[in-house]
Amino acid sequence: MAKLSTDELLDAFKELTLLELLDFVKKFEDTFEVTAAAPVAVAAAGAPAAGAAPAEEEKDEFDVVLEAAGDKKIQVIKVVREVVSGLGLKEAKDLVESAPKPLLEGVAKEAAEAAKTKLEEAGAKVSLK
């Protein structure tokens, strides 16, 4: 098998849907026995302070913010676990209960809209920034 460059890998990932990419991340985590949960949490904590201005200028990256869980909290927790890879049940529950909270930051418009649609179908109130 030919070795792919970083740019070639990124181009391949850009062609995947959000669900396909989440499936890939899960398989990657299982294969290499790693988790992406810690880096996601660090990026979520550091991004608002450092990356707020560039995100507003570019408009090709969006943040998905959970405003409220709504009446169907259990369904929302399940969808949050689907949308944000690497979250356990407790982490997803804590995230939903501490709304408003950003779920995804700096994602493509299509991915952000797909996540927003899934969350709203589960009964959550979501905004894109």
Task: Write a structural description.
The protein has 129 residues and is α+β, with helices and mostly antiparallel strands. It has 6 helices and 3 strands. It has a 3-stranded antiparallel β-sheet with strand order 2-1-3. The chain starts with 5 loop residues before the first helix and ends with a strand. About 8% of the residues have low confidence.
Question: Helix and strand layout, with pairings?
Answer:
Elements: H1 6-14, H2 18-32, H3 37-58, E1 61-68, H4 73-83, H5 89-97, E2 101-108, H6 109-121, E3 125-128
Antiparallel strand pairs: 1-2, 1-3
Helix pairs in contact: 4-5, 4-6
The low-pLDDT segments are 38-47
Mean pLDDT over all positions: 78
Number of helices: 6
Strand order of the largest sheet: 2-1-3
Number of strands: 3
* Rg of Cα set: 15 Å
Coarse structural class: alpha+beta
Main sheet specs: 3 strands, antiparallel
Global outline: globular
Briefly summarize what is shown.
By secondary structure, this protein is α+β, with helices and mostly antiparallel strands.
Key phrases:
single chain, 129 residues, alpha+beta, three-stranded antiparallel sheet, 6 helices, globular
